[in-house]
Amino acid sequence: MSGLESAALLVRALDLVGTFVFAISGAALGTQRGMDLFGVLVLGCVTAVVGGITRDVLIGAIPPASVASWHNLALALAAGLLTFRFSRLFDRLQQPVQFFDAAGLGVFAVAGTQKAVAFGINWPMAAVLGMISGIGGGMVRDMLAAQVPTVLRADIYAVAALAGALVVVAGSALGLPPTAVALAGVALCVFLRLMALYHGWRLPAAPSREP
Question: CA nearest 151: which of 162, 138, 164, 141?
């Protein structure tokens, strides 16, 4: 298997993993909000595919992978059904939406960056596209659930995705093994996001002027 084929396979595998965990995060938020089965599935699917579709449109990968293949949608639906069926089990986990969202954020940021690099995008824009891949689905999920998107708050979210993306472009520039670089990028992103959740790491925020 050539290097290009290995890179494509790695991106595809990460994309599927990200689709599954992001769908769980969207569906879990739907169950927490008391949505019916249809609402839970919609929220899960939107969370899982919007970021990847946006990335593919911007880099010219038309049609987007989530549209050209049924696998992503089927995986997102399966994750949504699983979350809906075992919603009580997910409720027992501490902050289930945030945990699965952190995992999906890291995987999609890395997969998005690697795909952008494979399409010959320059490294600054490849990192930005990776970040967009990670945050896109979560933004739409939060808006559909009638809450301020996490990326617009002081929590470290987009910055975590960008950090993971930068690991990928640095590793690509140095010629490091793609799998090791991908794992390092995911680990850094998830670490920063979980530190923000559990230890209150935050970016400076504008003072509130609400009465």
Answer: 138
For the stretch 2-36, pLDDT in tens is 555 666 677 778 888 888 988 998 998 899 888 99
- In this structure, is residue 205 part of a structural domain? no
List Cβ<8 Å contacts ≥24 apart for 10-15.
10/114, 10/178, 10/179, 10/182, 11/111, 11/114, 11/115, 11/118, 12/65, 14/107, 14/108, 14/110, 14/111, 14/114, 14/182, 15/52, 15/65, 15/72, 15/108, 15/111, 15/115
pTM: 0.84
Residue 136 lies in a domain: yes
Structural domain of 159 = 3-199
